[in-house]
Design brief:
Layout lengths: L6 H26 L5 H17 L3 H12 L11 E4 L1 H5 L9 H7 L3 E4 L3 E3 L10 E7 L6 H13 L3 E7 L2 E3 L3 H7 L3 H4 L4 E2 L3 H7 L14 E4 L4 E4 L6 E3 L5 H15 L5 E5 L16 H17 L4 E4 L5 H4 L15 E3 L1 H13 L3 H10 L8 E5 L12 H6 L4 H13 L10 E6 L4 E5 L2 H4 L2 H6 L3 H20 L3 E5 L32 H4 L8 H17 L10 E4 L6 E8 L2 E8 L5 E4 H6 L6 E2 L4 E2 L6 E4 L4 E4 L1
Parallel strand pairs: 1-2, 1-17, 2-5, 5-11, 11-12, 12-13, 13-14, 14-17
Antiparallel strand pairs: 3-4, 6-10, 7-9, 8-9, 15-16, 18-19, 19-20, 20-25, 21-24, 22-23
The structure holds alpha-D-glucopyranose.
The site of alpha-D-glucopyranose has 10 residues, from loops.
């Protein structure tokens, strides 16, 4: 419960303010210094931080101290995430309390509640169209329920991540409603234009996020005479981050959520927060200044909380979200490793890991400061084939042809493809086709089961486990997407739901199949095999010190086109991760491992020694090994 700040508490606040002063004010000065209200804004922000800290419950203040002392808590190998929609997993928020044993059984220490703040009615883009940041979706429960559940999770050592959409609010948000009524103060919270001339100029260099069902980036509202910036859907109005008032309001929301027991704020669609004429209006330098400043605010008033920045962009554009250059160590603590996910699927389809090694080796640093990745194989969104023409050219192949091949393969239209995916947002102008589909279906299980092909089903299971061994070993928090641990197939019922039928991403957002979960310990069937396999991977990860997110990851050439390899270097010795991305046996010279500093030839994943024959390590189809 909140208690008035004591002298000691005030002192702690002042020390933290001092610590982060250099991270905060220079950013705000550069962003808003010229704004007429800058002085008042500065005072109001400082006051908001103090109010937030004063209201912080005692148990969370204790957590703040704990994490000040253990700043690497989120990089440790015992971190393992699980991502789910509250209603689809447990009915309601309180229902989650009945599922804690299940989560613990799998080895989960971090949960991401998919968007759970109050969305607009009807189609809400899966909850990413928020009309009230301070209320829980009434279909899930109340804020009091949230506090109860987050406390119960905390008591079990499980952290909670929630989405905070920074780029836009629903047009039903109180700010948007006031703006639509003509209130000038709130019109300045958004990007509104009196006529279409500027929108047209911006449009020339903008890209379309949802070209199929929400073309264009602006919407005209004749009833109040404005063109409103709507990057995503018509009902999602982009916020005007050039207005310091928006920064202040969102900071207050952040502290409010932090004080309800949120550990990780997943900052949604951050790339779009700053607009500049003549650019794509994505990842502009000001975005990183804003994010550094928001991070500093949490470090001052709720330092237990960390930020996961969602930017599904090319590697060079994504890395700055983890703090590069002058923002090094000061921006996002976590960011999605989209490239790892894309390259995993690319290598499976082509049976060739060379593109994967090239992209991950060329574009990513071995080490990050105060940050790590959120690694994943599937999530609630589609897969976009983010492989640049330059990277394709480096491997002497054509970018467009390669991307088209991957789309066709996972759509299931290519001969020999094992995956029945669904197309998402086909962009006729660019030829770009994105793919939806559940992990198990994309990995081949659906087709194999439909055809009664048991060897193919076995290969699909091995692909699923290969992917999890990859994300658990690479560095960062591995995120398991609800249902994937039970090899859940595509759910075609979304086509019958009017709000979802236009959005194929719902094919991989099924309801949790609790009957299937009952067989999770069984030896028979894919569900049991996958559940036990993932549980085992997480358990082995937990005791493998070399997998700490702070230790560098270096991509190495395995010498075999089909085998992806990396080395994790730690004070206790090296770990060589080997991943056979093909259904063929591969022979790896033992000398390759020895050169990388592997001395014992123990597999930390199976906890068994690896025996080489005639100097060769034999890797079965889809083998994964963490060699120490
Ligand atoms: C993020 C979400 C996606 C949503 C978009 C707009 O990219 O992951 O599901 O559609 O933001 O809010």
């Amino acid at each position: 419960m909140a208690k008035a700040a004591s002298t000691a508490d005030n002192e702690i606040f002042d020390l933290r303010l001092e610590r982060s002063t250099g991270d905060l004010w220079p950013m705000l000065e550069a962003l808003y210094g010229q704004h007429p209200g800058y002085g008042a804004f500065r005072d109001a922000l400082l006051n908001a931080l103090r109010v937030g800290w004063n209201a912080r419950p005692a148990d969370l203040r204790r957590l703040d101290l704990k994490r000040d002392l253990e700043p690497d808590w989120f990089q440790r190998p015992d971190m393992a995430g699980y991502v789910f929609y509250i209603d689809r997993f447990a009915g309601t928020l309180k229902g989650v309390l009945d599922k804690l044993d299940y989560l613990e059984d799998l080895g989960i220490t971090y949960v991401h509640f998919m968007p759970c703040l109050k969305p607009r009615p009807g189609d809400s883009d899966g909850g990413y169209s928020v009309m009230d940041y301070r209320a829980i979706n009434p279909a899930y429960g109340t804020m009091a329920d949230f506090e109860e559940v987050s406390a119960a999770l905390r008591a079990r050592g499980i952290s909670v991540c929630v989405d905070l959409v920074l780029n836009h609010t629903a047009k039903e948000h109180a700010w948007a409603q006031a703006a639509a009524r003509g209130d000038a103060k709130y019109q300045d919270y958004y990007l509104m234009f009196d006529d279409p001339s500027l929108p047209r100029q911006y449009e020339r260099s903008l890209v379309e996020v949802f070209p199929d069902n929400a073309p264009g980036n602006f919407t005209e509202y004749p009833h109040f005479g404005k063109w409103v910036w709507t990057t995503f859907n018509e009902h999602q109005w982009d916020l005007n981050w050039a207005n310091p008032q928006v920064f202040l309001e969102i900071t207050e929301v952040m502290l409010f959520l932090a004080n309800r027991g949120v550990d990780v704020l997943r900052l949604d669609a951050v790339a779009f927060m700053w607009k500049r004429l003549g650019t794509r209006c994505q990842s502009e330098p000001e975005v990183h200044m804003l994010l550094q400043a928001l991070r500093a605010c949490c470090r001052i008033a709720c330092p237990a909380v960390i930020h996961l920045e969602e930017a599904i962009v090319a590697p060079a554009e994504m890395l700055p979200y983890l703090g590069r250059g002058k923002h090094d160590g000061r921006e996002g603590n976590l960011a999605y490793h989209n490239s790892l996910m894309v390259q995993f699927w690319g290598a499976l389809a082509t049976r060739d890991a060379r593109m994967m090694s090239h992209v991950l080796g060329e574009h990513f640093p071995e080490r990050l400061t105060n940050a790590t990745y959120a690694t994943y194989i599937r999530c609630h969104d589609d897969i976009g084939w983010a492989i640049t023409d330059e990277d394709a050219a480096a491997l002497h192949i054509s970018g467009p042809a390669h991307r088209a091949y991957l789309s066709n393969f996972y759509e299931g239209s290519f001969p020999d493809a094992f995956a029945p995916g669904a197309l998402f947002q086909v962009n006729r102008a660019t030829g770009d086709k994105r793919i939806s589909g559940s992990l198990a279906s994309l990995a081949g299980l659906e087709k194999a089961e439909a055809e009664g092909d048991f060897p193919a089903a076995e290969l699909a299971v091995q692909r699923i486990l290969l992917g999890h061994a990859l994300i658990a070993g690479f560095g960062g928090i591995p995120l398991i997407y609800m249902g994937d641990e039970l090899a859940t197939l595509n759910d075609y019922s979304y086509r019958d739901v009017p709000e979802h039928a236009h959005d194929s991403r719902w094919i991989h957002r099924p309801k949790m199949d609790w009957r299937r979960a009952q067989y999770r310990h069984s030896d028979e069937g894919a569900a049991g095999q996958v559940f036990r396999g993932i549980k085992d991977i997480l358990a082995r990860r937990k005791v493998t010190e070399a997998l700490h997110g702070g230790h560098p990851v270096r991509i190495v050439d395995s010498g075999l086109a089909g085998v992806f390899a990396f080395v994790r270097q730690s004070p206790t010795g090296a770990l060589l991760g080997l991943f056979n991305m093909t259904e063929h046996w591969q022979n790896l010279p033992e000398a390759m491992a020895r050169v990388q500093g592997i001395t014992q030839m123990d597999d930390a994943l199976s906890d068994a020694p690896v025996i080489a024959h005639h100097g060769q390590i034999a890797l079965p189809p889809y083998a994964r090994v963490w060699l120490t």
